[in-house]
Amino acid sequence: MNNQFSTLKLRPELTKNLSEIKFSEMTPIQAASLPLILKGKDIVGQAKTGSGKTASFGLGILNSLDTKRMQTKALVLCPTRELAEQVALELRKLARMIKNVKITTITGGVGYFHQERSLEHGAHIIVGTPGRVMKLIKTQFIETENIESFVLDEADRMLDMGFYDQILEIEKSISKDRQTLLFSATFPENILKLSESIQKEAQKIEVDATHENGDIEQYFYKLDSHKDKSKTVLKLLGEYNPERLIIFCKTKRITDDLADFLNDHDIDAESIHGDLEQNERTKVLTEFSNNSLPILVATDVAARGIDIKGLSAVINFDLPLDTEDYVHRIGRTGRAGEKGLVLSLFLEVERALVDRIKEQVEDECKEVAVETLDESKQYLVKPPMMTIYISGGKKQKLRPGDILGALVKEAGLEPSDVGDISILPIVTYVAIAKGKAQQAVERLSRGKIKNPNFRVGFI
Length: 459
Fold this sequence. Notes:
This protein has 459 residues and is of the alpha/beta class. The protein is built from 17 helices and 18 strands. It has helices at residues 12-20, 28-38, 53-63, 81-94, 112-120, 130-138, 155-160, 164-172, 189-198, 229-240, 252-264, 278-289, 300-303, 323-330, 351-361, 400-409, 437-446; strands spanning 43-46, 74-77, 103-106, 125-128, 149-152, 179-184, 203-206, 216-223, 245-248, 269-272, 295-298, 313-316, 340-347, 365-368, 385-390, 418-423, 428-433, 456-458. The longest helix has 14 residues, at 81-94.
């Protein structure tokens, strides 16, 4: 079976962009669902985080999107703010060669005023959480009469969070003459009931997106004291040199302390936890997702909803108290057929927890002596990209095409030098190949993006 994107009937801008961002072969969920989605069929698909489902519904939406009129043509619902932001970022990446596409994120945790002002100017695609979307539909800031694509992403999580009634209420406001795409990691009875209520002759797609045995190598290192953990992390980084990873800690204080410790040892790392302001959180996640930052140090709560492809490893600085949380943590590495690595530190008092984890995952977990680690080895990974900021965003009606065009024409970059473009209300973050970032900043500072002169610099 030919799983190449080139076999699909996609508009030329999408085909060219997929080639630029090195998307050639479809994942199982994409190969199974995209041909049906492009034919306008309703889909109820089994797809876990990291399976490539965003590209499945994203390419379907973008392939038929008419940008000549500023009307909302697609609504994507997600369970959390973090996942909505990740989905919107991925859609912008897919859409970057289509002119004048406006993608707006509508979630809680952000003031109504700015969202209402943004919606007054319209949006082609809205990605949001059910509660906030429903309220803005009621106040008529979101117009639903022209919606052609309705997507429920991680539907089982939304139902677990109590959004069933809100989803039905939102669905009633949308034309029945639409395509409805529902993606869920599992197919419990309430998901099938929801599908029957809001979809028409939905095609059911089940893809085994779980890890095969051996996809993730898991090693446990027993320490004598919690005080030994930071130095052990240095040894682990030197031993394995993972290109991009998340280190999980149990408290906000520990994440900050560990990130500071790593930076003191000339290792790029940032912490993320519940005390961060939203703008700082967005900056850190943007750097991590666009390959400008190799290490994220996080609490479990802060990491919920983060969907980052291509994680080389996960380090458990502190073990979670629940074995299910351990499974969720390790599921962030070893995706899409790639090998994963999980390194866990523990104390003897946690021996019973380690045994429960080993029983839960049913994979081979090796216990390795810390003494086998060579402390002379250095962590050599440096991020391939750097993130620059542009002091303009959605309010200045900047589009990805404007920025990509300026970087090519004004700054003299190749399209392949440009990574993710994340356009926020008043600022834009752009990932640039490290060797070209200084050139981009200097030349854009002298040139123009669209019409106004914007400040440009490193974040």
